[in-house]
Amino acid sequence: MKNKKRLFGALVIVILALTMIATLAACGEEETVQYTVTLKSGFDDQVTTQTLNEGEVFTLPVNPFTRDGYTFDYWTEEGTTYPNQVGTPIPVYRNMTFVAHWTENYVPDVPEDFTVTVKDGYGSGQITAVVTEGEEYVLPAADTFTRPEYTFGGWQVGDSVMEAGDSVTITANTEIIAVWNEIPKYNVSVLKGYGDNAPIATYVVTSGGSYTLPEMTLDYAGHNFLGYADLSGDLTEYLAAGTVIENITSNKTFVAMWEEITYYTVYLKKTADATGTDVDNSNRVTEGGSFVLPECNFVNAGYVFKAWLYDGEEVQPGFTIENVVSDIDVIAVWEEAAEPQPETYSVSFTDGLYTRPGGSYTEDTGYTIPLDSDKYFSKADYKLIGWTVAGDDSGKVYKPGETYNGNANVVFEAVWEQIVYYTVTLSDGAGKNETVAREESGTVYEYILPAADKFSREGYTFAGWKIGEETYSAGETVNLTVDKNITITAVWEAIPTYTVTYYYELNGAQISVSSAMYSGTKYDLIDYPADQTPPTGMRFDGWKLVRGDETVYAPGTTITVTEDAGYYAVYLDAVFTVEFSDGEKVQSSEVKEGGNVKIPAPDEKTGYTFLGWYLNGEGEALKDKYVYNVTTDMRFEAKWQINSYEITFVYHNGSQTFNVNYGEMPAGPIDSDSYQDDDYIYTFSGTYDPEIVAVTGDCTYTAVYSKTARLYPITFNGGGYVNFLNTDGEVVSSAERKNNQSYFVTIEKCVGVNISEMKILANGVEITAVDGVYEIPFVMETEVIVDGAYFVEYEIEFAYSNVEYIIKEKPEKNIYGATVQLLAIG
Which of 113, 162, 221, 778 could connect to 166 by a Cys-Cys bridge, CB 3.0–4.6 Å? Predict the structure, then answer.
């Protein structure tokens, strides 16, 4: 049994070995095992995949995905939470999926910029501005826009109306619209008066405006124009034509006021007791007027007219009655005719109120109606067209110039026809009317059309006058047939309106400011907005047309509006000039905005000390080595202090020192103090050593003195003689007085002379004074006569201090008791 077991075990081993060999042979024939590694974005459907062999190492890569507003942090295997960083090695033995994890980026809240648009409210202009969220925007001034015939009423912001200067907190794009209040308009009417309420003129005036009352061009028969009355005021207060009615705030009506003219009648009578047609009562004279007596038109059978009886005197036709202030009777004076007259018949005319004689006629001649008979009488708004014969039922009308045939006295009665009047009116076509004439129908009215400035109309130019369908020029003469009311209407042409827009930058955004202007308007280009600043590092250089050449226009340039125009701001690098002027030379530097400029050292200026650089020559001196943060053109001016030097003047007894400015001429004090020693008198010469020149530094000047030997007076009190010695002590001459053997001498010191000791030698022998008088023997050999006086030439030797001798001097006075001067030489 034991051997069977061993055989069985060996068999099993063999079978196992064969099995393993078979297995190994089968493995060598199979494919490699692979797995997929998937990367997911973690926030959308983005994925990437990679296939690796079993056991390979997968290194977690840099995140291939991007996510706005987030930053990648790490990878986690799907279904787990463990963070795996980029670069982590992962052995692959199965399919694996990794998911990206992110952290949201922190984004600080940045205020948003909003646009504020300010509109004029009627479509002609607007301005815009960029305002940061939450900031206050100050509403523009009331005069930012204007609108003809309106007043500014505020700014519409949302549902509110706010005032100029108010502030609005901006939280979104905002539209601000100007609110306008129409200025009220009022009618001004001027009526004719005298019962006729037809207007002479009508005008439309804006509230607060004015109106000038027109000249009166109409006529009211028998009346004088007094002026205009305001129907809303005192009707007895008259306003003259040309009066300006100011500050009209309501409808106004003015009526022409008339005063009836006072008339008196000059009655021409055939006889003193005449009545009816024998009285001419048609002669009406205004109060204070005059009347010329006419030819007599009465007929008195068998008599001829002789004269008129006026105020008790007979006067002839042509006589003038002056200053008529009452009714007057004037009676015809007759005389018998020399020869029989043919039978004549009288003619008279009447209007029903007044009668005037018309002469006479015979049956053979008939009567011709005078051509001017239509002027015999007048009736307001009527014209006399002919005459009918009183009592003639046929109604025949005789015209001026026609002949009436009859055989009896005749009265012609006036036939009237009502006059139809029409007006000629000027109109501006917009509510202003002015009556310039009121004429009888059919009248041809000659009228010179007014100048172009008769009326004005906002936004329009005058283009002529229109009558019917025809247009005429101002100043043209027209002949109008007035057979209806005629209106002459101003013709207007609308002035084209163009928009002028300025563009500039603010915080990187383009801002525009627009305004509407009429064509032909002249305007000046604006300055850069005062409340704005150019972009950083730039400066405003002017305006350039959006559609134009390269011309840059300076603010203030006058432009005429002919089309829409846009101007954009031209910016240049903000380069500023910094100048340093020392009064003779200017050093300049150009520097960009915010830059620094080194402060230069000034050139030396002889005689001056530099104090520093001053902005525009004012304020305090610069203290640093640089001018920092330049933001504008600057000019610095040097200030200098003139140097002062010590100038000393030295005199015999001291000195004086002065401070004198550079370049000035020093002037020493005037030294009037002469001085002397035993030998000389020293006098200031007025000069110095060295010679005085303009100051260039410290300097000492020494006074120069001239010297003069001291003078001593010697008084001769008696006679005697004197020997005259030369410088060697030898006698060179002598003088002797005839009447004396001795001469008495008094020696006196000059004022200011300092003599310590002195001796007088006479003939070589020292003599002394007795009571101050020296007795000197004197022998006179020669007399010198000058101008009738006796003089002597002499020489005396004496010694004192360092004086050795005196020289010969000519005496200047008579020797008898005279004083003689001697010159001391040392």
Answer: 162
497-573 is classed CATH 3.30.70: no
> pLDDT category, 47, cuts 50, 70, 90?
very high
Are the CB atoms for 306 and 335 separated by under 8 Å?
yes
For residue 31, the model assigns a pLDDT of 76
Question: What's the rounded Cα separation, in Å, for the pair 789 and 813?
Answer: 8
Which position has the token pair 């009346």?
223
Best CA proximity match to 357, nearest among 320, 310, 308: 308
C-alpha span between 584 and 812 (Å, rounded): 68
More confident residue, 820 or 794: 794
pLDDT digits (tens, 9 = 90+) for 382-398: 889 999 999 898 889 99
Nearest to 206 by CA among 222, 226, 176, 186: 186
Which residues partner with 415 through β-bridges?
A: 386
Distances (CA, A) of 455 to 333, 428, 465, 474: 64, 6, 11, 12
Architecture of domain 113-182: Sandwich (2.60)
CA gap 554, 350 in Å, rounded: 86
**Same fold? 34-104, 497-573:** yes
What is 644-708's CATH number? 2.60.40.4270
Nearest to 811 by CA among 727, 730, 743: 743
Most distant CA pair in the chain: distance in Å? 226
CATH no. of 575-640: 2.60.40.4270
Tell me the pTM.
0.44
E runs forming strands in 608-698: 608-615, 626-627, 634-642, 644-651, 654-661, 675-676, 680-689
d(CA 790, CA 662): 63
Residue 404: is its pLDDT beyond 90?
Answer: yes
The two tokens of residue 592 are: 């960009």
Average pLDDT over residues 7-23: 39
Over its C-alpha atoms, the chain yields an Rg (Å, rounded) of 68
Rounded Cα distance, 478 and 190, in Å: 26
CB 214 within 8 A of CB 201: yes
Phi, psi of 806 (to 5 degrees): -125, 150
Six token digits for residue 34 = 């692979």
Domain boundaries along the sequence of the chain:
34-104, 113-182, 185-260, 421-494, 497-573, 575-640, 644-708, 710-825
Q: Are residues 37 and 13 in contact, defined by beta-carbon separation less than 8 angstroms? A: no
Neighbouring C-alpha atoms within 13 Å toward the C-beta of 236: 0
Half-sphere CA count of 157, side-chain side, radius 13 A? 21
Computed over every residue of the chain, the mean pLDDT equals 79
Structure tokens at 816: 């008898």
pLDDT tens digits along 49-61: 999 898 888 898 9
Contact 62, 87 (CB under 8 A): no
Q: How far apart are CA 394 and CA 554, in angstroms?
A: 93
CATH fold of the domain at 34-104: Immunoglobulin-like (2.60.40)
Q: How many percent of the chain have pLDDT more than 90?
A: 29
- Residue 786 one-letter amino acid: V
pLDDT digits (tens, 9 = 90+) for 181-224: 988 988 888 888 877 777 877 888 888 888 889 888 777 777 88
Alpha-carbon separation of residue 222 from 219, 258, 289, 361, 459 (angstroms): 9, 9, 14, 34, 46
Place of tokens 């070589």: 764
DSSP state of 450: P
- The beta strands (E) that lie in 163-282 are given as 167-169, 174-182, 185-193, 196-206, 209-212, 223-230, 244-248, 252-260, 263-269, 279-280
Q: What whole-number distance in Å separates Cα of residue 805 and Cα of residue 728?
A: 9
